[in-house]
TrEMBL record:
It holds the Pfam family DUF3307. Keywords: Membrane, Transmembrane, Transmembrane helix. The chain crosses the membrane at residues 35-52, 58-77, 86-105, 117-140, 211-230. InterPro entries: Phage_phiKZ_Orf197 (IPR021737). Signal peptide: none annotated. It comes from the Bacteria. This is DUF3307 domain-containing protein.
Length: 231
């Protein structure tokens, strides 16, 4: 498939064959950096190599030109505040161009959207993200883990870290169940217990321990139940 061939070329060109020194030079000198043009040339050459068909030379040129336009736009508008956002925009646009080429060659038919099993798995995975977080938050709303005075003594944590940890653990549990590897669920429970043990031991607060335990069991329980229902 052209899509796979071009994605392989993209991964090699954008990550493996692009040193950090090139990235830093491009960010400092922007369109004046020679590494920008070398980088684009590498993408064209890699695309030709992976396609292995001289009749598709125009595809390699298209990939190279689009890569230059996308990278140049990123370098022009990117700053320290939006750097992370532009990284993902940059990658999404590159993949979109490759996807467009694949569509031109009729490599995608989107028949999987009619597959009921696929749609059920997507539905389950979506439920285990923000909707499940809201359910758990409401269920735990009648309890507070620590008082305000005790809370000031707690060490600071990353912003919204707990929410994303919960989403990731539920998705992993759901994946293990869908692929029939229940032992992975046990591994997840054990891993989280190990990481949480030291924090809870240092806190020495029974209320906090019970709150975390209830939240963890609810999170895993919802993920397991969703996996069983989807199966």
């Amino acid at each position: 498939m052209i899509f796979i061939q071009l994605i392989l070329a993209h991964l090699l060109g954008d990550f493996i064959l692009q040193p950090n020194s090139w990235v830093a030079d491009k960010e400092n000198r922007k369109l004046k950096s020679p590494y920008l043009y070398i980088h684009v040339l590498i993408h064209i050459i890699l695309s030709l190599i992976f396609l292995w068909d001289l009749k598709l030379w125009w595809v390699a040129i298209l990939v190279g030109i689009s890569h230059f336009i996308i990278d140049a736009s990123k370098l022009t508008f990117q700053n320290n505040q939006n750097k992370k956002r532009w990284f993902f925009i940059d990658q999404i646009l590159h993949v979109a161009v490759i996807g467009g080429v694949s569509l031109y060659f009729n490599e995608f038919n989107f028949e999987f959207f009619k597959d009921q099993n696929f749609l059920k798995i997507v539905m389950g995975a979506l439920f285990l993200t923000t909707p499940a977080s809201i359910f758990i938050k409401i269920l735990l709303s009648s309890w507070t883990p620590v008082t305000e005075e005790e809370g000031n003594m707690q060490t600071e944590s990353l912003s919204s870290a707990g929410k994303y940890i919960g989403i990731l653990e539920r998705l992993l549990v759901f994946t293990f169940i869908v692929v029939n590897h229940w032992e992975g669920v046990g591994f997840m429970v054990a891993a989280k217990s190990v990481f949480r043990f030291s924090d809870l031991a240092q806190a020495k607060q029974r209320k906090l321990t019970e709150y975390v335990l209830i939240g963890t069991l609810l999170s895993f329980g919802i993920a397991v139940l969703t996996g069983i229902l989807i199966k």
